[in-house]
Amino acid sequence: MPTSVEGIPMPAADSSLRDRVAARLGTYKDRLLELSHALHDDPEISFAETRAAERLAVLLEDAGFAVNRAVCGLPTALTAEYGSGDLTIGVCAEYDALPEIGHACGHNIICAAGAGAAIALASVADELGFRVKLLGTPAEEEGGGKVLMLERGAFDDVTVAMMVHPFPVDITDPRGSSNAVGRFEVTFTGRASHAAAAPEGGLNAADAAVIAQVAVGQLRQQLRDGYRVSGIVRLGGERTNIIPERSVLEYEVRTPTGGELTDLRERVLNCFRGAALATGTTVAVRQIQPDYLDLRHDPALMASYARNLRATGREVPEPGPVPQGTGGSTDMGNVTHALPAIHPGLGVLGAGGMPHTRQFAEETASPAADDAVLDGALAMAWTGLDLASDTEWRARCATARHG
Questions:
Q1: pTM for the structure as a whole
Q2: In this structure, what are the phi and psi dihedrals at residue 63, rounded to the nearest 5 degrees?
Q3: pLDDT at 87 exceeding the cut of 90
Q4: Is 64 helix (H, G, I), strand (E, B) or coil?
Q5: DSSP string of 93-146, one letter each residue
């Protein structure tokens, strides 16, 4: 697993370069906030982010980037590149929303901040001899866009990667992580029959769903702390007078590390297999998305980001006791297993809601959200600048990525 040699910040870049990066960001301030608000007002769910991806592509083309649309066989994925050299700084931009509640995870902020960081870094890329590569990554909420792009080579030329994720507070502790998650669909198939006239002729797929959920509920009593199992019934029948011949459930299992997913998933699947046996139905399981792995932040990159975020004027808390996993999961975890990367929490300061709530969805288009876009973009850009300015750290990161 690639890690930086030391958990200390890289030396800060020359102040004149930092000023140029900040000035470049300032010239794009209005367009970045327009992008954030446009995405917020026009939410699109996983793999359907057509307008969001195009808005991002147009902005980057206007800023001088070479943009490639529909990369990796994904219609709403893109890459945008500027500069050349032996160092490639990757910036990830998410833009998918949640069904019904829109940008309740703040991906509009992620996208705009990522675009801002990439554009700001491009202002010094030629002078310092490095590439900036923005990766527009669809379907983080469900689908694993980054995993698919990682598997299909989009990160092969990336030395380090970074992104920010909105949260009510700033989170820059490199020891923090996320849970690994596996998601799957379960279909029970039985036999329909008239529920009143001939119930004995049916095999009730909805009963199988009920039994499976009860079994999972009982299993939870014996699970380790930090393990999570949750699910929904997507289809449980059509009419009350027809014994349901088909039921469909979506479930997910979460564990602190990716290595623990397989065992928990198998225990949960046994609950579904047992329900099929008890009801005489058949059961089929389909994986919904690639497994998401736990986050492994690069400590030196995170330390530099934290210092740079403070330099924007924010009061970033110092690391305290070793933090536990957030309970959330992200496909950025897979990227952090492949190369030095960070995924800090970016505070929408003063927000009263938590991600995935309607309140937080409203707050991701607030003045505090606009501040987060600009502060997050500048902190990432300065962090990339610190790395590009230091030959020793450039070499260390290249070794970590390709070693």
A1: 0.93
A2: -90, 5
A3: yes
A4: coil
A5: EE---BTTTBSTT-HHHHHHHHHHHHHHHHHHHHHHT-EEEEEEE--TTTT-HH
